[in-house]
Every structure is written in C-alpha cells, then in structure tokens.
Recover the amino acids of this structure.
C-alpha cells in the first residue's frame, strides 16, 4: 500500500498569526470611506502627470538605495543620509527592523490596543509578543511597559499618536522612558501620523536620536502626504542600526514610482501642510460636535478618533454602514472613525447624534 504523501506545513508561529483586517470598502452603494485613515484629498495637481512620465521606465529596476529620496528625507530632518532607510510602507520597514534585531525566544513589548500589524510582524519574526494594556484614557501605560522588560526583551514599540485610540506621547514621557530602558533594548517609535500632531509638548522622535542610539523612528508617506496607494515609508536611527536594517531589506523594495512620488510631494510640502491643517480643523470640528452630543472621546492627534463603546461595537458598525458610513470596528472594544471630506464629516456628526439618541 502506497504511503500517504506528506505536504509542507506552515510554521506554528505563522499558523497562529491574527489576520490583518483592512478598512472596509463597501458594497457598491455610494458611501463615505472612513475606515482606513486615508488622506481624503485627491493627489496634488500635476502629480499624476509626473508619475505617468515614469511609466516609460518600468522595465528598469528602481534605484535600490532610493538615493535621491533618502537624501531629501535626511535633509528635511537634519540627519545624515546613512541614518535613513526606506521601504514599501512603514509596515515593511518594521518587518525589516524585526528581521535585523530579534530572534526566536526574544520578547517584543508594545501597547495594546495599538496598530494591529504589530502582533503579525512580531509573530512572523519568531519573537514573542508582550502586550501591555492601555490606560483607561486610551494612552500608553509607560510604567507598566517598563515593568514588562525582562532579560528576554529585545525590542519595544511605541506608537504616537496611538492608532486606533489617538493620544500622543510627550517628549518628556518618551525621554524618561528611554532613559529607563536598558541600552541593548531597541525602541521603535512609530510616528505614522506625526504631521497631524498639534499637542504642544508632543514627542518628535528625530529630536531624541542624538541622545538615545537605541531609538528608531518610523514614518510614512501614506497618511498626510497622500501616497497610501503607492506605499513608501522609512526608518531613521543610528548609522549602525540603519545599516543592519538596510541589509535585511527587500532588494529594490521601494519602487520607482514610489520614490518619484515621495520626492515630488516633499518638494511641495507647503501645499501638503495646508491640506493637513484643513484636516486638523475638521477633526476639531467633529470632536467638538460629538462631545457636545455626550460622546466620551479620548484626546487624539491623528486624522481619526476613537469611540470606546465595547460590546456595542458590532451594532454601531452595522448601523453606520446602513447610514452610508464605512468605519473601522474592533470587536468588543470600540470604533475608529477617520476624518474625511467635510461632507463626510457632516454625515458622521449627524449619525453620531441620531445613534446616541
């Protein structure tokens, strides 16, 4: 009798990974998409035409080291080129960070709830996730995160503003935290929404790099810069850490269109910041109206806000969907709503008032 053929099996760490849930895209009805923290503005005038010119070169590999983009980012941030590495979105860069720094048996500490890609990235690396619950006001519990450090801790992730809840970390909080972290433990500060921050004493990770060589800062062009569909992010840190991350990065991982688009929007930063200011103004308008209706909403410095409604989350998401609003629910915990076009925000305010009644 012939033996039953064996088949490849997935690593146990992969089999146990949670699924990443993207923002809902709707069912064909006209709906406002407020589920993915996207920039609602159309691409800058002329950007699409400029990108079309690059299509004639798609048979060629891109610049593997994103030389011009890296130079532009380093100049903007006031760091050396050797301190910057780009990738296919900040999530891919985080994966490269983990690949460079952690091994099976290592522990990675991060706040929870936070960005849902963290447990996936950590699990894929073979490391063990150590989730530290947020405080009651949806902020990082930095004291508990310090206490969670063990001899197996290799890396800590901070997220400011925290996605999906919104609060930002202050410069003093992060400096104090970093001073208490053993120097052999790397700390990743995810600042995907940095451009939307208006809290006066909020942390700017780049300002702390000179003091803490174990710090890495992640940023992206997907949010404020309006390039979510092209995917380009980057890490900033010490030359030693960045060189290791670059060695682990996917060859040619930042494609030619992404490099060209990121360079183009960097050159037009004043226009981008005007759009960001409009989104911030809309954020404050929506929050003011919602709080006046009686909603309990944590402070937020992102282009989104959080409704901690627990078990009512599923019903809220369904009702919002029926009302033409696509929002992001986290079962049993709460709902994140992105700031969209003014008309979309008007619809959110109206729905929140009706749902609360």
């Amino acid at each position: 009798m012939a033996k039953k053929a064996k088949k490849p099996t997935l690593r146990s760490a992969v089999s146990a990974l949670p699924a990443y849930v993207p923002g809902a895209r709707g069912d064909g009805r006209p709906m406002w998409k407020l589920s993915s923290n996207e920039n609602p503005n159309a691409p800058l005038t002329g950007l699409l035409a400029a990108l079309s010119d690059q299509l004639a070169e798609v048979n060629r590999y891109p610049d593997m080291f994103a030389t011009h983009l890296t130079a532009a980012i380093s100049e903007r941030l006031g760091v050396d080129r050797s301190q910057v590495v780009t990738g296919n979105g900040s999530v891919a860069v985080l994966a490269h960070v983990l690949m460079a720094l952690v091994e099976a048996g290592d522990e990675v500490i991060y706040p929870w709830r936070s960005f849902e890609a963290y447990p996936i990235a950590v699990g894929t690396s073979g490391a063990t996730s150590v989730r530290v619950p947020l405080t009651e006001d949806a902020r990082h519990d930095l004291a508990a995160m310090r206490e969670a450090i063990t001899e197996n801790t290799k890396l800590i992730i901070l997220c400011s503003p925290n996605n999906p809840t919104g609060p930002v970390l202050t410069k003093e909080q992060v400096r104090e935290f970093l001073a208490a972290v053993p120097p052999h433990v790397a700390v990743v500060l995810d600042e995907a929404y940095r451009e939307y921050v208006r809290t006066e004493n909020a942390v700017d990770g780049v300002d702390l790099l000179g003091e803490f060589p174990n710090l890495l800062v992640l940023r992206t062009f997907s949010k404020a810069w309006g390039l979510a569909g092209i995917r380009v992010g980057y890490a900033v840190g010490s030359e030693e850490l960045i060189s290791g991350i670059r060695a682990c990065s996917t060859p040619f991982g930042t494609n030619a269109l992404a490099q060209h688009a990121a360079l183009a929007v960097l050159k037009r930063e004043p226009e981008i910041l005007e759009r960001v200011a409009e989104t911030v103004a809309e954020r404050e308008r929506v929050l003011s109206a919602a709080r006046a209706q009686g909603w309990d909403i944590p402070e937020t410095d992102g282009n989104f806000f959080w409704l901690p409604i627990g078990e009512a989350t599923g019903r809220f998401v369904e009702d919002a969907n029926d009302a033409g609003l696509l929002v992001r629910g986290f079962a049993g915990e709460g709902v994140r709503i992105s700031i969209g076009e003014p008309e979309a925000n008007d619809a959110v305010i109206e729905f929140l008032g009706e749902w609360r009644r």
